[in-house]
Amino acid sequence: MKGRLTTAELAESDIDTVLIAGIDLYGRLIGKRVPTRIFLGNIDEGLHVCTCVYAWDANQRMDKLVVDYAGGHTGWHDFRLRPDLGTLRRASWLESTAIVIADSVDEHTGELVPIAPRTILRKQIDKLESDGHTVYAATELEFHLYRGTPDTLRRSGYRDLEPTTLVPSDYTITAGNAMEPFFRKVRTALEESAIPVEVSQIEYGLGQWEINLEYGTALEMADRHVLFKQVVHDVAAAEGLTATFMARPSTDGMGSSCHIHASMRSDDTFPFHDENAENTASTELLHAVGGVLEHCPELMLFYTPTINSMRRTRASHDFSGNGLTWGFDNRTTTCRLITGAPSANRLEMRLPGADANPYLALAAVLASMNDGLTRKLDPGAPVRRDGYSDTDTLEKVKQQPLPSTLDEAARALEASEFALAAFGAEVVSHYAAVAKDEWDSFMSAVTDWERERYLDNI
Q1: What residues make up the domain containing 38?
Q2: Taking Cα atoms as reference points, which of 203, 194, 251, 258 lies closest to residue 227?
Q3: Is there a domain that residue 458 lies in?
Q4: Measured by CB atoms within 10 angstroms of the end CB, which terminus of the chain is less buried, N or C?
Q5: How far is CA 155 from CA 148, 161, 237, 448, in A?
Q6: What's the pLDDT tens digit per position in 372-402?
Q7: Rounded distance between C-alpha atoms, residue 311 and residue 437, angstroms
């Protein structure tokens, strides 16, 4: 694939810098830059990094969050970023630079760090592969693009944001042409960095855009996802723009999704396809859907990991999931089935927002699919009408609600026997603690909304 590199090719290239990048709790790239000669001479050693990256909040505050893995009680010890050489590629949007995704490993034993997002996804992939299943995935990401650099917007308090489209322009070509110079740079940077693009378009929200990447195996897709976000952020800033993957950046606008598509192959067959079934959806596909839906409430934190995530799931016009529902090509459900050709049959999990950590969200989908297949879970009847207005569907959603706040999602994860079995006690307690700390910070803050509503009116 164009942009991929072997170490031999790296040694013969004009690249003088290698970015060794791990994944933090929020799906962001962290790491260090090294000269190419240092990288080639110490590939197996990797980089020593402080465990603070797994023990602070989204703004790198570390005075309040308490977790077992790291903190003053551990001396803020190190772990290592061990490069996965299969991910080595040219970072074409940066001058003379390559980038490699790294696994987080224990500094002394070399074992994978259990709470690291890439470790969590790896373990779910291994479970399915042990049963002969290879999972393929795609993550459809939407984002908003505003005029002005990130520093400019931060200095203004993110007020009076100017979106790159001023009227709804979903699918329109004319509005897209106006921004094509920017998006051509993004697509070129992605393609030349071994992050293949499938399609790009304008979305409905003001300044909202979408670029879909080609599907791949689950781990490869998660790696492409985080690299894609980095490219969009960096190219936007260089062009005097700011990209945000907030799930809902404005009260009245549209939310941005991360729809997760998942399919399987087993011994060169397609277990999600049955020519004789309704819409060719096999019983295996329905069992997988049953698992995803059953475990939605307890794994909500992995799909909606921030305070802002929940803003999107509350709005029906965002088509962001609707209780424990599914349907054939029905965007008013949580699980939409896309069917037809054997290799195309898949489920689309519509609940995650663009702020989801792809490793955690994919791990949640895979663990749930595996449980559905193992226990042969029945997803119930499909929704065949508008799931947001159909009386029977609304009653079902009311009877089986999803967590509606980050605190509820954290407590649902903590109480989940399934999550404990699938991910382990260390993972569950760590991510629940991070979420509860975020919720506590939110509840301690006085917002503009409160001042505008109450200051001189109560």
Answers
A1: 7-113
A2: 194
A3: no
A4: C
A5: 11, 12, 15, 16
A6: 999 999 999 999 999 898 888 888 888 888 9
A7: 19
